Amino acid sequence: MTERLEGLVRERVGGDPVCLFAYDLDRLTDHVRAITATLPRRCRMFYAMKANSADPLLRALAPLVAGFEIASGGELDKARAVGADVPVIFGGPAKTPAEIEQALKQGVQRLHVESLLELHRVSAAATRLGTTAEVLLRVNLSGPFPTATLAMAGKPTQFGIDEQDLPGCVSAARELPGVRLVGFHLHSLSNNLSADAHLELLAHYGRTVSQWEREFGLRCEVINVGGGIGVDYARLDRQFDWPAFARRLPSVLAEFPAHVREIDFECGRYLVAECGSYAVEVLDVKRNHGVQYALVRGGTHQFRLPSSWQHSHPFTVVPVDRWESTAPRPEVSGPVTVVGELCTPKDVLARDVAVERLRAGDVLVFSHAGAYGWEISHHDFLSHPHPEHVFF
Ligand SMILES: *Cc1c(COP(=O)(O)O)cnc(C)c1O
């Protein structure tokens, strides 16, 4: 934890129970600059906005990335609030005709099409507006996949076009008057921690696209290889090895057709997770049936990430000596389970984590909370006040 963050937490202690998200924008820009600086020729890094669409984050990221990947009309509004010219690409599994029209009117660069019906909708909207939409077909690959990625890719999902249906979609894309097929979109995994596995997956994408080009007599201009680079929440000292990944990427990209001019990444988690922290005050500490609990202000309604991934989220303790109550101050040491203020046993942020000492009134700071934290949470369940959001 930085001194600045601890200072902020200590400033807040003594008022309403501490409950805040803090984002370090300097750390964000350093991290993202280091990533984009090592991208090889042809590669561009878009930011997948669904990981965190807070306006100050978007403004810090806009000059560093190739643009934003959006998945709704609301996200397009947020992108356009940052700048009328920020490049935007539009994905998402169930776009409405109105969103498609909004995207075309507001200069979205490319649409990632997820079904045959959607392809028809895009063409109809573009024709109505007197334009042609550049599209990538998002494909859910059949496999077989390289062994390293087996656990993650090629499962039935609601996303993309089944590879078996690709011939029909490619013909339709060529015949429909309002669309121009410029390539394919392949995003098949989430939170991948292994650079080796990611490289293998990309090599597989390259071979697959080359084969489709031969099969369909196509020349792709753009391939989108998705996001899915992960954050290791269990071992913060052992993160995705981006430098090794970037070093070996050029040889893997040799598997992609030489005429492809642009290879797009659209990462969310890996770009913004580490710049965010979630600080919550311990309201109570108790033992129940042999388990020690710390009950905090806040919970999964504000930070659903650990519950959605079923992990114990890493935290550090900010010891607070001040204790103004005349009541005895409860404390625990050893394994503690951190829970929120919701009336459901699922409101767990971390389970059986060893602490030296934890008292009511101390503050816990959860790190790597910048992606899919506040954004994916059900904020108004139980109607507690929302946390403060601070941007350094
Ligand atoms: C969620 C999503 C991303 C970003 O995924 P991360 O795991 O956050 O990198 C990229 N592309 C698509 C299509 C997505 O749905």
UniProtKB/TrEMBL annotation:
Domain Orn/DAP/Arg decarboxylase 2 N-terminal stretches: 26-273
Matches recorded under InterPro entries: Ala_racemase/Decarboxylase_C, De-COase2_CS, De-COase2_N, Orn/DAP/Arg_de-COase, Orn_de-COase, PLP-binding_barrel
GO terms of molecular function: diaminopimelate decarboxylase activity
Residues of the signal peptide: none
Active-site residue numbers: C343
Coiled-coil annotated residue ranges, if any: none
Keywords: Pyridoxal phosphate
Essential cofactor(s): pyridoxal 5'-phosphate
A GO BP annotation: lysine biosynthetic process via diaminopimelate
Protein name: Type III PLP-dependent enzyme
Entry-annotated residues carrying N6-(pyridoxal phosphate)lysine: K50
